[in-house]
């Protein structure tokens, strides 16, 4: 097969080399082709190709300095790419952007004659502050040129292409990102919950601004772009050393202007800032860019800056190294926090990185497979509905009865927005893994908008309710928020009162319920009252029975799932001469630390060559009487990949927990065909009882567990029945169950119906509740813009300082923003007075009066407070006259009273 790769930049050459390194790629011939009349881009591409390939030349369809206008160049490009494909006998063409000027022309010229495979080469899932009838950013239309196949990084991009583009049914395939998704270092950085601190508090920072050609790409006017950079660099200068790294495609005029900026160092635009180079910075700043993958690798905090004039918005990602801001003032607050405390305050809410980047260790092979299988899309028959044909087979015309049913179905609205509440969302804790895995799968197959909210960062239920305003379904992940947060119980009551669907996905065991009930008796009692007002999803039938006894009417058993890890090697079928027995879990009494140790001692006493290992971090929940045996190899916490490797190198997974509703570690052991032993009360017994390769012990004693281990080592694992259990917990099966329980459109349905229904509604309804609600931007005052806008957590101790800085600098919008955040926590008089003065100056009399009233009752030096009230009231015109007179009288009265008190005291 002769495969052409159309490249427009150096990165395209890199991606082509990744594809060519795929297994079996050597059976095909590859041809690199570009189109450049100026010569600079072609020169860069040829240099990159020479560095990556031995004898693969780059074919430029144009001679340097051909006398063609831009319109003539694009017209000629279409003709020449067709001639190139015909002359070279090209069977497939791979390209990386179908919405650039060149890429669009290539797609138009070849899409009906050569199968086109579009491969994602950068982050695409952006949001937009405005989605009016005008032309949106080209990223919005990515994939709408009807290619034969589109290979994307992750479920969020698949969601974008399948449900927001002009193309009715794009053949989207989630492959992961070439050179990123198969990088173990990036996977570790993605799932990390910690990062290095900056220099000692108070020291100057080293900051790099990663500029982009926003005006060249028509994302900002030249004036707006330079204004934002000027303001940005001036604000950063007070915090330390500032460097600007221009984008390699930046034009000379902008480079010359950058060098005129004071107090900054402009780096060479062709220099490569990879992870190693970025490691030397305390902070990086950019507008929107794939560079976040490099900053994650480097462990360098990154601020994604979306100034008001910029329509495109980078999505909010929940990671300790990423932060989104919308103004220079917000950016300055974040940097000031970093310098003062040495800690980076990241996004409090947002989606995990793996919504945008699926990790696979065979990305190139997946892309290569879709290249080989691609076919030229057929023309749609007249009157054929989108999505009715599949795999090239002509769609069967609908009967009258079927059309009538479709008309009724289209009138039914199903929820299309889901808010997930919890206390943190990371792959480090098992409680978050199933819901994170589920939402990734949901995004790839359903037009449902998903947002995450960490309940732990809120201090008022009103703020949570405001942020959940656009969510039709609210999913609370685990019972922990009800014990840890003072807001959860009241929140459920409030959501129930307004008719919102609230669902609880429970992971807790009877042991945990009893323990937390003792530790948090009052909140636990309140939780028991609200439980019947929620739909409860359970991971086992035993857990469902427990909730029935607590008053839940109809708990639903959906089990759980685990993510697709890159390493899932099978364990050996026959145990070795020295069988290895492993446990995965935190070291605590509930996990059976004592039992595991005593079984290891018992095996040693009987002279058996069994080896015992425990993987997991040590906790404080270990009783002084608990045995921690020297016969066990205590391995500590390991990465997920290492855990998978250790399971594959073992013979038995021995879950020693005293209770566990449906442990994920057992599911992983089943995936790797590892013999498994658990206690009788553990939920795994429900699905594994009677399966060869699994044993449970009815008495929680070392002797009973020892006999179960001896028995399971003597039998063969049943491949057929283990496969059956694995399919129960597989991601597609779990996604279908979870989606059905939540009442959302999902796999197994014609989800295009849900989309058609949404698009057929009135414009007002669409803006209020439709698919595009998430496109609203922070900072926009419209109703849709506020949807899913989450409170950002910051150090409370620094807020007053930030308010004073903005107020004195005359940046009143920033002062109001910080002041509002302060008032969520407490009501200091100085902040109330400062905000009242700003409102009064702007003519907002009603709000100014409200703030003055709050200041008058807030306490402090009463005479000074009333004096300040009188001063600000003078700015309110006629309405402020009475307030001013009252304030002056109160100030004089309090001052006289204070003098009298001093005189009496002196007597």
Features:
alpha/beta; seven-stranded parallel β-sheet; 36 helices; 42% helix; globular
Shape: globular
Characterize the main sheet.
Answer: 7 strands, parallel
> Which bin fits the share of residues in helices?
40-55%
Structural class: alpha/beta
**CA distance, first residue to last residue:** 107 Å
Summed up, the helix count is: 36
- Flag low-confidence runs: 379-395, 750-793
The number of strands is 27
What fraction of the residues are assigned to beta strands by DSSP? 5-15%
Strands of the biggest beta sheet: in what spatial order? 3-2-1-4-5-7-8
Rg result: 31 Å
Averaged pLDDT: 84
Helix and strand topology:
Elements: E1 2-6, H1 10-20, E2 29-34, H2 40-52, E3 58-60, H3 70-88, E4 92-95, H4 101-110, E5 116-119, E6 127-128, E7 149-152, H5 155-164, E8 172-174, H6 184-191, E9 205-210, H7 222-236, E10 240-245, H8 252-258, E11 265-266, H9 275-278, E12 283-286, H10 292-298, E13 302-305, E14 312-313, E15 322-325, H11 328-341, H12 363-373, H13 400-410, E16 417-422, H14 433-445, E17 449-454, H15 461-467, E18 473-477, H16 480-484, H17 488-497, E19 501-505, H18 510-519, H19 521-530, E20 535-538, H20 541-549, E21 556-557, E22 580-584, H21 593-605, E23 611-615, E24 632-636, H22 640-648, E25 652-655, H23 664-671, E26 675-679, H24 684-688, E27 694-697, H25 702-713, H26 719-728, H27 731-742, H28 751-759, H29 763-769, H30 783-786, H31 799-808, H32 812-825, H33 829-841, H34 845-856, H35 862-873, H36 878-906
Parallel strand pairs: 1-2, 1-4, 2-3, 4-5, 5-7, 7-8, 9-10, 9-12, 10-11, 12-13, 13-15, 16-17, 16-18, 18-19, 19-20, 20-21, 22-23, 22-25, 23-24, 25-26, 26-27
Antiparallel strand pairs: 6-14
Helix pairs in contact: 1-2, 3-4, 5-14, 6-10, 14-27, 17-19, 18-19, 21-25, 31-32, 32-33, 33-34, 33-35, 34-35, 35-36
């Amino acid at each position: 097969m002769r495969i052409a790769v159309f490249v427009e930049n150096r990165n395209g050459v890199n991606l082509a080399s990744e594809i060519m390194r795929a297994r079996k790629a050597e059976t095909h011939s590859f041809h690199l082709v570009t189109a450049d009349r100026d010569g600079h881009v072609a020169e860069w591409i040829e240099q990159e190709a020479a560095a990556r390939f031995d004898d693969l030349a780059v074919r430029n369809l144009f001679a340097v300095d051909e006398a063609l206008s831009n319109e003539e160049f694009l017209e000629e490009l279409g003709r020449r790419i067709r001639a190139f494909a015909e002359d070279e006998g090209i069977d497939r063409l791979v390209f990386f952007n179908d919405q650039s000027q060149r890429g669009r022309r290539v797609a138009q010229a070849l899409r009906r004659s050569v199968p086109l495979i579009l491969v994602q080469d950068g982050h695409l899932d952006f949001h937009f502050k405005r989605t009016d009838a005008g032309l949106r950013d080209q990223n919005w239309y990515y994939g709408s040129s009807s290619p034969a196949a589109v290979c994307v990084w992750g479920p969020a991009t698949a969601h974008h292409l399948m449900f927001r583009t002009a193309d009715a049914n794009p053949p989207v395939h989630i492959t992961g990102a070439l050179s990123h998704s198969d990088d173990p270092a990036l996977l570790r950085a993605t799932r990390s919950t910690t990062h290095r601190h900056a220099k000692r508090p108070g020291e100057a920072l080293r900051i790099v601004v990663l500029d982009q050609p926003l005006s060249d790409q028509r994302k900002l006017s030249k004036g707006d772009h330079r204004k934002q950079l000027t303001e940005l660099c001036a604000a950063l200068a007070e915090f330390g050393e500032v460097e600007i790294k221009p984008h390699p495609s930046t034009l000379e005029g902008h480079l010359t202007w950058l060098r005129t900026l004071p107090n900054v160092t402009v780096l060479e635009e062709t220099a490569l800032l990879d992870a190693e180079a970025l490691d030397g910075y305390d902070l990086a700043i950019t507008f929107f860019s794939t560079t976040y993958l490099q900053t994650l690798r480097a462990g360098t905090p990154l601020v994604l800056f979306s100034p008001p004039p910029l329509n495109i918005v980078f999505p909010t990602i929940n990671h300790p190294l990423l932060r989104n801001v919308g103004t220079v003032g917000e950016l300055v607050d974040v940097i000031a926090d970093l310098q003062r405390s040495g800690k980076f305050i990241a996004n409090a809410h947002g989606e995990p990185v793996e919504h945008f980047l699926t990790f696979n260790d065979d990305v190139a092979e997946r892309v290569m497979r879709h290249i080989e299988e691609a076919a030229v899309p057929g023309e749609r028959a007249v009157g054929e509905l989108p999505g009715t044909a599949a795999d090239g087979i002509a769609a069967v015309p609908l009967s009258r009865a079927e059309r009538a049913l479709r008309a009724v179905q289209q009138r039914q609205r199903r929820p299309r927005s889901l808010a997930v509440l919890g206390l943190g969302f990371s792959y480090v804790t098992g409680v978050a893994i199933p819901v994170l895995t589920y939402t990734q799968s949901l995004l790839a197959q359903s037009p449902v908008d998903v947002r995450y909210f960490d309940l732990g960062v809120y201090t008022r239920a009103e703020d949570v309710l405001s942020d959940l305003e656009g969510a039709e379904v609210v999913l609370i992940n685990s019972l922990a928020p009800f014990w840890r947060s003072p807001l959860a119980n009241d929140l459920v009551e409030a959501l129930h009162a307004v008719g919102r669907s609230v669902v609880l996905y429970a992971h807790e065991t009877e042991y945990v319920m009893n323990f937390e009930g003792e530790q948090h008796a009052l909140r636990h009692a309140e939780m028991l009252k609200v439980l019947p007002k929620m739909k409860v999803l359970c991971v086992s039938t035993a857990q469902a029975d427990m909730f029935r006894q607590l008053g839940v009417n109809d708990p639903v058993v959906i089990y759980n799932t685990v993510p697709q890890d890159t390493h899932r090697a099978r364990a050996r079928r026959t145990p070795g001469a020295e069988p290895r027995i492993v446990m995965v879990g935190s070291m605590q009494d509930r996990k059976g630390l004592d039992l595991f140790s005593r079984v290891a001692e018992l095996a040693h006493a009987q002279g058996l060559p069994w080896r015992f290992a425990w993987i997991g971090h040590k906790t404080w929940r270990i009783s002084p009487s608990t045995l921690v045996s020297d016969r066990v190899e205590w391995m500590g916490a390991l990465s997920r990949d290492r855990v998978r490797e250790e399971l594959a190198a073992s013979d038995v997974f021995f879950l020693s927990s005293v209770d566990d509703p449906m442990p994920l570690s057992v599911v992983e052991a089943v995936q790797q065909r590892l013999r498994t032993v658990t206690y009788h009360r553990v939920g795994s017994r429900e699905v594994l009882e009677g399966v060869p390769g699994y044993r449970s012990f009815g008495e929680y004693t070392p002797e009973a567990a020892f006999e179960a281990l001896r028995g399971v080592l003597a039998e063969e694992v049943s491949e057929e029945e283990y496969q059956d259990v694995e399919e129960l917990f597989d991601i597609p099966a779990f996604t279908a169950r979870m989606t059905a329980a939540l009442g959302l459109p999902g796999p197994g349905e014609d989800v295009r119906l849900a989309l058609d229904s949404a698009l057929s509604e009135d414009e007002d309804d669409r803006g209020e509740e439709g698919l595009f609600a998430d496109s609203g931007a922070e900072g926009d005052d419209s109703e849709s813009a506020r949807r899913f806008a989450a409170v950002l957590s910051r150090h409370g101790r620094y807020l007053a300082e930030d308010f004073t800085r903005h107020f004195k600098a005359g940046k009143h919008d920033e002062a109001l923003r910080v002041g509002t955040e302060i008032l969520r926590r407490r009501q200091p008089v100085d902040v109330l007075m400062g905000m009242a003065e700003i409102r009064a100056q702007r003519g907002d009399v009603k709000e100014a009066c409200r703030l003055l009233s709050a200041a008058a009752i807030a306490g402090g030096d009463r005479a000074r407070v009333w004096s300040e009230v009188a001063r600000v009231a003078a700015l309110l015109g006629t309405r402020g006259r009475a307030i001013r007179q009252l304030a002056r009288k109160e100030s004089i009265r309090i001052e006289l009273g204070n003098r009298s008190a001093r005189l009496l005291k002196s007597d």
